[in-house]
Amino acid sequence: MEKNNKKTIRAWAFFDWANSAYNLVITSTIFPAYYVAITANKATGDRVNFFGKSFVNTALSDYALATAYLVVAVLLPILTSIADYQGNKKIFMKCFTWLGALSCACLFFFKLNNLEFGIICFALAAIGYTGGFVFYNSYLPEIATVDMQDKVSAKGFTYGYIGSVILQIICFVFVLFPKPFGLNAGSAAQLSFLLVGIWWISFAYIPFTVLPKGSPNAQSHHQNIIKGGFIELGNVWRKVKQMPLLKRFLPAFFFYSMGVQTIMLVAASFGAKVLNLPTANLITVVLIIQLVAIGGANLMSRMSEKYGNVPVLTVVVLVWIGACVGAYFTANATQFYILAAIVGLIMGGIQSLSRSTYSKYLPQDIPDTASFFSFYDVTEKLAIVGGMFSFGFIEELTGSMRNSALMLCVFFIIGLILLITLHKEERKIQKKV
């Protein structure tokens, strides 16, 4: 495949445009606000029954997401290895996209009296989103040379932020002004979930049309696809163990991702439950985050050219630690807005730079990019599992989401220490060269 082709890169970035609507509407704004609104019950301490078991409402949604990411973490190494072995990763990308889009559309029917149905659809949508992303990410080293990967990665996130903001504004109109459309607050939220599903699958067909299906990593297939997939996974794992920088980056990425991804997923619930912010305010906050994140992704890309990826990531993680402490002490809407702007700036930067840093550490021009990127995505998903379970557990244990937010500092500090050791190793290798 020709690298640095503008048409291919633009089509690739449209996958982010398509599925980021899920990330904004379902995990960050309208769904959390809708979910908290229909499950709030001061008489029971906001507890709900899920298949006969009692949970704090927000803890249940945290556990559902954590379980979804755990499922993805288990499945992806096998599926990506099969995809590389057969050379058909775009098929897997399509399957996960359809799963996510249809699950979002089904949330149109979610009400309190079918809580189990809603939570299951919520979890399946997360599986679709995260599962498709690993195959999407794996195209990065195939479509861009090393010197362009920071910029291309930032372009993908920029498309995602812009696309999701456009749909969010459309949904915002329905939620804020439901009566002219013959809706109420609840049905307006449900319509938003349906629109996400339609938007997601519609725009995803731009990259599906342009991107290649993938190249097989075997000249002839003497094994069945399952066994061949495991053989491929073993081969990639042996290669990973021989890469000193990659081995050090993944643990650092794991720990700081526990903090980053958890904050992104619980921010709206935190605002709704702790600060009692109405849905309109929450949507405004997340729009601020998304718009600032566009600048953050591009700013970090330029800074990495001057100072290097790892030093910039180190500084960004330091700012994240400050953001966690700030969340603990946030007492009103104004403070929450300021914190949101800071989070937006560092969110776009750390996501974009993490992906391109990992891509740079990979051998270039290899056919098994999906398998290599599965280690990156599984690391991120396991980080989300740990972060979400920890956040939900601390809230149930202490009765406060503020304590959960403060606890995330521990993960960032460990990630910071590991980034510093990675930078030392990088400099040592550069001196030898």
UniProtKB/TrEMBL annotation:
Its main location: membrane. The chain crosses the membrane at residues 21-40, 60-79, 91-111, 117-136, 157-177, 189-211, 249-270, 282-300, 312-330, 336-354, 375-393, 405-422. It is a multi-pass membrane protein. Coiled coil: none annotated. Residues 245-433 form the Major facilitator superfamily (MFS) profile domain. PROSITE patterns: MFS. PANTHER family: AUTOPHAGY-RELATED PROTEIN 22. This is MFS transporter. It comes from Mucilaginibacter ximonensis. The lineage of its organism: Bacteria, Pseudomonadati, Bacteroidota, Sphingobacteriia, Sphingobacteriales.
